[in-house]
Amino acid sequence: MSNGSVERRIRRRSVHRSRSTAVSVSLVVLALVAAWIGTESVLQAAGAAPLLADPQTVVDTALRPDAAFVTIAEVIAAVLVVLGIVLVVLALKPGRQHRSAVDHDRGAVVIDTRILASTAANAAGLAAGVPDDNTSATARGRSTEVRVVPVTGVPVDEQRVREAVQQRLAGLDDRFGKRVRVRVEQKGTLA
């Protein structure tokens, strides 16, 4: 296996969430139901009392339902439909983590979006001339939104802040600095 394909697999596994938890939960539930049916069948064959319900009684009741059984069956069916929808969504959803892969000549590099946001907030604070507490940022995918609260009486040049953030993020990877939105709050804080 080439080094490039290994790096691609590492990046993919680091950026995408595993679906093994949903699969494991589904298999455990299925195994418990199968174990219950098997246990009840063995108990019935041995002539012992059932744990919850005799399988033949359950089948007979299902074939000739009364009002209470229909209500219970409807509730169980609704729960199973919701569970099925959740599992289908988990299977089809891309399952991305809050991370981004960065091309690097020495190997696979994965950056958490909180680091991107922190880097953008730091660059914005330096460009705006405000304390670190007066800037915040969020990064999602390739777009970054920066919020700056100016110090009262000191104007903030929004374009200068945007360029500083774009330059800093482009230093990490060209993809990150392309969609930067800067929002300067109307009310400032005291220094």
Description:
The structure is a single chain. The protein is α+β, with helices and mostly antiparallel strands and 191 residues long. The chain is 55% helix and 14% strand. The protein has helices spanning 3-15, 20-46, 55-63, 67-92, 113-128, 158-172, and strands spanning 99-102, 109-112, 135-140, 143-148, 179-184. Strand 4, helix 6 and strand 5 (179-184) form a beta-alpha-beta unit. The relative contact order is 0.10. The mean pLDDT is 79.
Quickly list its features:
single chain; 191 residues; alpha+beta; 3-stranded mixed sheet; two-stranded antiparallel ribbon; 14% strand
Entry summary:
The chain contains 6 helices and 5 strands. It has 191 residues and is of the alpha+beta class.
Topology of this protein?
Layout: H1 3-15, H2 20-46, H3 55-63, H4 67-92, E1 99-102, E2 109-112, H5 113-128, E3 135-140, E4 143-148, H6 158-172, E5 179-184
Parallel strand pairs: 4-5
Antiparallel strand pairs: 1-2, 3-4
Helix pairs in contact: 5-6
Count of individual helical segments: 6
User: Are there runs of 5+ residues with pLDDT below 50, and where?
Assistant: none
Shape: elongated
Helix content: 55-70%
As a whole number of angstroms, the C-alpha radius of gyration is 29 Å
Assign the structural class, choosing from mainly alpha, mainly beta, alpha/beta, alpha+beta, or little secondary structure: alpha+beta
H and E string: HHHHEEHEEHE
Mean pLDDT value? 79
State the major sheet. 3 strands, mixed
Strand content: 5-15%
Measured distance between first and last alpha carbons: 58 Å
Trace the largest sheet across and list its strands: 3-4-5
| Count of beta strands | 5
